[in-house]
Design goal:
Helices cover about 30% and strands about 25% of the residues. It contains five helices and 15 strands. It is globular.
């Protein structure tokens, strides 16, 4: 009997990580533009046009467009849509909505991938809390991505934080992933699980971490378009994502404009 080998995880040089930072920074800047553009009355197609123009005008190529036939530059998932929503010109955003915007870009053959969930106008305190918890859980997961840690240490950090905040549905079957010369690479990174399992993290490994948290249950369904994933109970979901590199000095968040310094300082201040 042969022992099944774990899939190899791509390890990057310092120079290659700098190229990934260029892609990640372009993604981060594009998402910042989109955050400012979100308002009642704008369509998800309008947001897609903004994203594609900014990526191409700055020397990048949209990662998502044409990926397994996906027709757009961003995934735009509104309210009960969790991930992979397809932008269209009929879907106008309304006051009180939330929208997950997932964006990827390629620069010099290297990928960056990140997502934010943005309130549209004034949202309920319950929804605002969902967004806050989901984004904070992302940063707990990222902070666990240190050299010598195990893959599921990130998963456990995400789950532990969400569970500590109340009863929320942590989406299963979708999660983070390796990233580098391709957008989706081994390994899959679940947003739940026990710590201490999976490959040991090494300097030069790069991952995209992306918690998806529902206001209701964790149950999901895929629409007939073959892409859009929704909550089965119709309640809203939130989704945040960043690409990061494992370095000797800790996780370097390649898609954050400040590489994660502000968020890590915030988390550290709460543990001292």
């Amino acid at each position: 009997m042969f022992k099944r080998r774990r899939p190899a995880i791509q390890v990057k040089t310092a120079e290659q990580i700098e190229l990934m930072r260029a892609a990640g920074l372009l993604v981060g800047e594009t998402l910042a533009l989109l955050r400012e553009a979100v308002k009642p009355g704008i369509t998800t197609h309008d947001l897609d046009v903004i994203a594609e123009r900014n990526i191409r005008d700055n020397g990048g190529v949209p990662s998502f467009k044409g990926y397994h036939g996906f027709p757009a530059t961003i995934c735009a998932s509104v309210n009960e849509e969790i991930v992979h929503g397809i932008p269209n010109s009929r879907k106008e955003l309304r006051d009180g909505d939330v929208i997950s915007i997932d964006c990827g870009a390629i620069v010099a053959g290297w990928h960056g991938d990140a997502a934010i969930t943005v309130p549209v106008g004034e949202i309920s305190p319950e929804l605002a809390r969902l967004l806050e918890i989901t984004e904070t859980s992302l940063w707990h997961g990222l902070r666990a991505g240190t050299a010598g840690a195990r893959l599921t240490d990130m998963s456990h950090a995400i789950e532990s934080y969400v569970r500590s905040q109340g009863r929320y549905g942590i989406v299963e079957g979708y999660g983070g992933h390796g990233i580098g010369t391709e957008m989706h690479m081994d390994p899959l990174i679940p947003n739940h699980g026990e710590p201490g399992h999976g490959p040991e993290l090494e300097v030069g490994m790069c991952f995209a971490v992306e918690p998806m948290v529902n206001l209701g249950t964790k149950e999901t369904a895929e629409l007939d378009d073959g892409w859009t994933v929704i909550t089965t109970d119709g309640r809203p979901s939130a989704h945040f994502e960043h690409t990061f590199a494992v370095t000797e000095n800790g996780p370097r968040v390649l898609t954050a404009l400040d590489e994660g310094r502000e968020w890590f300082a915030k988390l550290d201040s709460k543990t001292t």
